[in-house]
Amino acid sequence: MLVLPGTSALSEFKSKSILKDIQKKVPSVTSIAGLFVHFVQPRSEEAKVLLQNESTSEGKILRSLLHYGNNPIDNTSASTIAHFLSTNEQPSQATVVIIVPRAGTISPWSSKATNIAHLCTLENQVERVERGVAFIITKADASSLAPNELSTFSDLLHDRMTQTVNTELPASESVFKHGTPAPLTVVELLGQEGMANPDIAREKLVKANKELGLALATDEIDYLIEAFVGSGDALKRNPTDVELFMFAQVNSEHCRHKIFGADWTIDNDKKPHSLFGMIRNTHKVSPQYTLSAYSDNAAVLEGFKATRFAPSVASNNSYEHYEEDVHYLAKVETHNHPTAVSPFPGASTGSGGEIRDEGAVGQGSKPKAGLVGFTVSNLLIPGHIQPWETDFGRPSHVASAFDIMMEAPLGGAAFNNEFGRPAITGYFRTFAEQVPVTETTSEIRGYHKPIMIAGGVGSVRPAHVLKKPINPGAHLIVLGGPSMLIGLGGGAASSMASGQSSADLDFASVQRDNPEMERRAQQVIDFCNALGEDTPIESIHDVGAGGLSNALPEIVHDSDLGAEIELRKVPCDDNSMSPMEIWCNESQERYVLAVSPAKIKVFEELCVRERCPYGIVGTATAEKRLVVKDSLLNNVPIDLPMPVLFGKPPKMSRVTETRTPLRVPFDSSLKSYLPQATTVTDVLTESASRVLQLPAVASKSFLITIGDRSITALVARDQFVGPWQVPVADVAVTTTSYGQNIITGEAMAMGERTPLALLSPAASARMAVGECLTNMAAANIKDIGHIRMSANWMCAANHDGEGAGLYDAVQAVGLDLCPQLGIAIPVGKDSMSMKMKWNDEQGDKEVTAPLSLIITGFAPVINNHKTYTPELRNVQNTVLVFLDLANGKQRLGGSSLAQVYKQIGHEAPDVEDPIVLKNFFNAMQYAKEQEGLVLAYHDRSDGGLFATIVEMCFAGHVGAQVQLDEIVQNGDVVAALYNEELGAVVQVEQDRLNEFETLMSGAGVTTYKMGTVTPHTNDEQDIISFNFGKQSVFATSRIELFRLWNKTSYLMQSHRDNADCAKIEYDNVLDNKDPGLHYELTFDPAQDVTAGLTKRPRVAILRDQGVNGQIDMAFAFHLAGFEAVDVHMTDIISQKVSLKDFVGLAACGGFSYGDVLGAGAGWAKSVLLHPHARAEFSHFFNERQDTFALGVCNGCQFLSNLTELIPGAQGVWPRFMRNKSEQFEARTVMVEIQETNSIFLDGMSGSRFPIAVAHGEGYAQFENKDVLGSFKEQGLTAVRYVDNYGKATEQYPYNPNGSPEGITAVQTPNGRVLAMMPHPERVVLKESNSWYPVDENWGQVGPWLRLFRNARKWVGDNY
């Protein structure tokens, strides 16, 4: 093994941040620095000699690959670490700690870096490359770290799930493990004579159940005893550990949903329906518009006739554009248990698993847009613990709410970002409180076991909606990543209350993420889909809970078949794994498929092109028997009749009683909680401060800007609205498909009111549905009957009274509310173990989650231009109208106001009249047909009417005068402002108020004119005033309230990211004159400069593994008049495609090779260090004068690393490095086009207008000031970031990465090559822009289409 030091692993900010956290545990530590360490496994001794020598070509290539990054480190620290790496001797005055991947695992970094090395001609020398980090830590007295000191903070240095901490260099065997395969084991149920004593056999199986963490129920143990060693047709043999583990996963609550299928007896009354039966009732009553329900990985819903735009294998991967029905699919998953144990990978694989669900529908489908949501206990932000927050403790092996929200959102966002799916809606709630049960007893209800929601929409072609029956002889294939010893027993672990299983089993059950691998697998599925009726895929399943032990049996069971599998054909990167570990691990990014033997060659060719691993592991058999053979160990780990595996143990019966715990009325005067407050203004001031900082109400910006929301170019409405980009959108909207005149789409919105379940489970469930609907009302949906919902149910089903509450809640939705509304619930999920148990020095403890229903609504959108937002228009003579859907009720139970005073209350809000709710929804749709009738819309939910109105003012940068007289009852201003009954507020012109009121009156909706909007002027503070009678009971500036609303997000961001950047953004809101985003154009976007051009010149839409932005790029060029052709780097390297056949090249955005060797650098090195690829690109850039090249985001980074081949770029262009914020930044920002000769920007110079950005490495780093000076002298700056006043800026977040002088696009002197970090290709259509002025006259296109049309104009028709 070679050990090669790399560059610094820590930025200056990161080292300071880690040091600060370490010093909280070991104050004597004074410094920390770190280097990446590379471990190289040569294929032979000869190869080792070549690689060790820095002067050989092989040695040079290796060191070139492993030199990346630009973080600083002092020479002393670097040399001390290097000495340790060469001698394995600790320094005398410091301690070196080395972090390496856990033995037997292969990190995602390793697999990608090894791929690059092999492509760069080192395949015969390098078997594998792995990476660790060496930290050097010093103390004030220059002594070594004691082991107990290191153990207190080692979790800050490594991921305990995937890495180990060492103070010695690891042995080669540890890093590159080549262990002996672990054996198959048998659980001895039979006696020596082959006979079984049932009692002894049962004892042995109970023991195995605990040791293996199987989570088998008593009746399942009895079932297995009978199946293996019972009488009659029993198998009469001992089970293998593989068989038992498989059975446990396949039949776990997580996979089988036994509680939802159970019989129920409540208060001695046997209920007529199962929970699932009541949910199915909604589909039975309203089956229309649903094409597939309950039978696949996601529900399939009827879409619109639109277009298909995708590369076609039949036309040499040219993109084709034609009309086709586009159906959409809906899915929402939970990943609660893994997120509690290890937040980043738990949430990441939660999103990844749900994405696979969206890709594995029918014969193959495609994910489109996602959502992420979280519910946790009290945040307890260090230094900022709120008055309503209590620290109830937690088990040591699970994360705190603060740690979860620091890491889990990053995990969910990272997977979506790298896979290439926008995350465009979600929610965030915190709750933990001690609540009374009786006069003398209480309990803690909260979310120590968090809720992590991952969901989204996808699309599926009409021919692929349903899975085909598999024929005997079909090849069974595992597509995607290799097996590794991770995620073992996740299905069973998730089915237990956290704390019941051991910490080791909890850790083992957490999976690891590799989104770039999942991207590759999805590309294979996409190209299969492109073949239409000729797709080689007959059926497809994702690999999730239970791993292959669930997925492979399931895919053949669906067709009533069996299977014969060869275990050693399963792709596996750890040859020490036992048969049980290979079969049952939950390694991610895998699918199982059935492929016809006649089409296997086509399938394999697609896999090779995408570099996606696969294994043909077996065949489907007519005999209904699952046989898994192991050719290496020469045994049969599984030989089971399918009915034994999928046969049903006795149906679960649940017996429970209704519990009515003590509830104390909420004092709406607040005098009980604020004895020092003397006036209603005092009360309202304190309440506003608390409620606006409660996470459920406060800004969610820190959760949103980390997630790409513009990828695909099909996002019509994301979370941020208006010129000031305030995250208050009620609904997310996508566009159906690619096309200039496609205005249809899909809407997604969420609803959840979980604290209400402590008062009334049924009301909580109804209010979740109601809130979802008031959110979805903002979208243009034909009528309420087109909405379909996902219901995600969570509770501690065995907690006293929770079963009865669950039944009431499901009945309220399934048999009552949804049937009345005409809404079906064709998809959902349940998690029935929402309790955390532990013990400490104070004894046994438990925290139980309230019954929780998370509703997500999905619906087809008629016109995506007509989505309402909360942005109040800055115009004269408009009024605010309150729409009361609660029949005047103002109950405060379970409200945000109650929570911030540590109360629950006793009366829950509820859906008062389903018919009024239905009529309201449909009336809002009619209002959209009346042009300009409603100017702004926002529903009432968390924070009540107060939060609704102030959020609308935030979005519009205006003030408001609100008159409360008509809605205040009995002088109770607090109840009027802070109740969270269903309702909404709209902005209407005074002249059209009567028209709107008449419309709502006809729908039976009560309306109140609440006051007026105060237009913004730069000389005013935009006062938001609430008046009762002739007095102002509360009045303050918009800025002051906005700062309060932003504070929680700012605090979280400052702990997680660069605190200086977070503070700058937080202070930006103090600028009352900020003009916001705007368009100052020197050209007419509606002008088509390509008019008269008839041909379609070919442009190569270039990608490599991990690139995800190729389709939006192809569509932009297609719209501009080019023939876009999908070109993978494998096409060039294999010489199947030559760049000589293209006039243009577009390098797309994404995460090539996961950016493991630097952003875009691995991709570039696969060109520079591969002789044929280098020759192709050199010829394209140097030998021809008729070519152009565009690189965007990752493509920009790629070109910046390719400058030695690009005339005029070498020595002057910057490289693009980590953002100053230390975070992925997804925003809409202002840019200015410079005076330039770029062929792409002709006629656009001087224009200032918004554009989407989404990157983590966008900082333009020049080699030195002289290089920057030369760059500027040559006029190579094409585009700059500007602030909202139009000035070039380095200020965050107007400049999201901190690049000097705002530089964000660079060009060559001849103007034919442009590299830019922002994404023009994602906003070529008007509605893809997060905001545009209402009075624009561009038609359906946006200003950025001009960039692509300019390229087409330059090429002309004489190419």
Summarize the structure in words:
- The strands form 11 sheets. A 9-stranded mixed β-sheet has the order 42-41-43-44-51-50-49-46-47.
- The longest helix is centred in the middle third of the chain and has 20 residues, at 802-821.
- Helix 18 packs across helix 21 and helix 23 packs parallel to helix 32 (1038-1056).
- The protein is globular.
- Among the domains are: 2-175, no CATH class; 1098-1355, Rossmann fold (3-Layer(aba) Sandwich).
- It has 1359 residues and is of the alpha+beta class.
- The protein contains 40 helices and 51 strands.
- Mean pLDDT is 94; it is low at 490-496.
- It catalyses: N(2)-formyl-N(1)-(5-phospho-beta-D-ribosyl)glycinamide + L-glutamine + ATP + H2O = 2-formamido-N(1)-(5-O-phospho-beta-D-ribosyl)acetamidine + L-glutamate + ADP + phosphate + H(+).
- It is found in: Cytoplasm.
- In the N-terminal section; belongs to the FGAMS family.
- It is an enzyme of class 6 (ligase).
- One of its GO terms (molecular function) is metal ion binding.
